[in-house]
């Protein structure tokens, strides 16, 4: 197998995915939904989505038909909301299940690793179906840059009827790329009140770090936006330093942070699981430890 396909729905993400895909195969082809021709792909099939009021997901059947007609065997999607949505819809049309790949190897056969049992285990599987639909999260394939000018072929495709975008407006809040952060401070349920996060915010500011959290902080007490929680169902990070404060270190959280170069934990419970994964640990009350750290910085 020396060919992979990607499906792009925005130019920047499409170029990044096409460049990374090149680490798997010599020939990278793309289906571009309104993202134009991609420099990093050898061939881009462009679908004009601007002339209709349909959302990109309305083109899923058209994309699946196109991929089948061109004999695609490995198709990559990004792990953003739209990428995952498209992957699911296209995979359903192709009669396969999408795979959230944690690692991919493409030689004579396609081998993928994916997290199983909520992140408790990693399953290594050889995919034998005629076509594989893979969702590629940040850091799964190396980031590369490919300068080039691939061929572009415009193809006609109609969206499914019945889906229309009636209004577009900014989501609000902030967008954050935790995957690119060099330092991250993570906060957990060890914080007793939302106002106390200021301590962590100040520490993150001094360290030049992004602030992140465990899932209950974002989806339990809603003190931080969902974009900022780390773990199997949240963001995955690869910083030089991850400082976990008041986080127990359940496996679902650890999955998102184990690629950090150095993990430092602050927890008042010396038996907290986070200490088994930390390079440095401070057993202590965060309300005493953090002010001391701030004094020292
Ligand atoms: C299907 C599924 C998916 C999940 N996905 C995710 C995910 O993606 N990300 C995620 O984070 N979680 C996820 N979870 C939840 C996960 O299992 C844990 O419940 C969660 O990570 C715990 O968050 P926490 O460490 O902040 O809270 P807790 O587990 O309650 O830990 C709080 C810690 O703070 C310490 N502490 C308390 N007070 C202080 C203090 N004053 N000073 C210092 N330390 C203190 C305690 O000793 C404790 O260790 C998922 C769960 C399921 C079932």
Would you spell out the secondary-structure blueprint of this structure?
Blueprint: E1 3-8, H1 11-21, E2 27-33, E3 43-47, H2 60-69, E4 74-78, H3 81-94, E5 99-101, E6 103-106, E7 110-116, E8 121-127, E9 132-136, E10 151-155, E11 183-187, H4 197-207, E12 210-213, H5 215-219, E13 241-245, H6 251-254, E14 262-267, E15 280-283, H7 286-296
Parallel strand pairs: 1-2, 1-4, 2-3, 3-10, 4-9, 5-9, 11-12, 11-13, 13-14, 14-15
Antiparallel strand pairs: 6-7, 7-8
Helix pairs in contact: 2-3, 4-7
The structure holds flavin-adenine dinucleotide.
Protein described:
This protein is α/β, with parallel strands linked by helices and 297 residues long. The protein has two domains: 3-155, HUPs (Rossmann fold), CATH 3.40.50.620; 178-296, Rossmann fold (3-Layer(aba) Sandwich). It is built from seven helices and 15 strands. The strands form three sheets. A seven-stranded parallel β-sheet has the order 5-9-4-1-2-3-10, sandwiched between helices. Strands 12-11-13-14-15 form a five-stranded parallel β-sheet. It has a three-stranded antiparallel β-sheet with strand order 6-7-8, with no helix packed on it. Helix 2 crosses helix 3 (81-94). The radius of gyration is 21 Å and the shape is elongated. 41% of the residues are buried. Bound molecules: flavin-adenine dinucleotide.
């Amino acid at each position: 197998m020396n060919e992979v396909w990607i499906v792009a729905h925005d130019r920047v993400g499409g170029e990044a995915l096409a460049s990374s895909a090149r680490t798997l195969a010599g020939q990278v082809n793309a289906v571009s939904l309104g993202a134009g021709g991609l420099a990093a792909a050898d061939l881009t099939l462009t679908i004009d989505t601007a002339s209709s009021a349909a959302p990109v997901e309305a083109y899923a059947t058209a994309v699946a038909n196109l991929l089948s007609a061109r004999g695609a065997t490995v198709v990559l999607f990004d792990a953003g909301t739209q990428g995952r949505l498209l992957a699911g819809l296209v995979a359903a049309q192709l009669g396969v299940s999408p795979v959230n790949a944690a690692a991919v190897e493409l030689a004579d056969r396609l081998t993928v690793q994916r997290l199983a049992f909520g992140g408790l285990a990693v399953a290594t599987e050889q995919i034998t179906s005629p076509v594989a639909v893979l969702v590629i999260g940040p850091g799964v394939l190396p980031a590369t840059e490919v300068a080039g000018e691939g061929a572009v072929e415009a193809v006609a495709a109609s969206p499914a009827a019945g889906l229309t975008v009636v209004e577009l407006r900014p989501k609000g809040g902030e967008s954050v790329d935790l995957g690119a952060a060099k330092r991250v401070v993570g906060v957990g349920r060890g914080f007793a009140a939302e106002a106390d996060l200021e301590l962590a915010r100040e520490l993150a500011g001094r360290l030049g770090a992004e602030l992140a959290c465990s899932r209950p902080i974002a989806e339990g007490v809603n003190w931080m936006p969902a974009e900022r929680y780390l773990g199997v169902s949240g963001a995955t990070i690869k910083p030089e330093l991850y400082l976990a404060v008041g986080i127990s270190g359940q496996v679902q959280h650890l999955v998102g942070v184990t690629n950090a170069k150095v993990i430092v934990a602050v927890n008042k419970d010396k038996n907290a699981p986070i200490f088994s994964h930390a390079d440095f640990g401070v057993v202590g009350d965060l309300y005493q430890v953090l002010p001391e750290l701030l004094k020292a910085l």
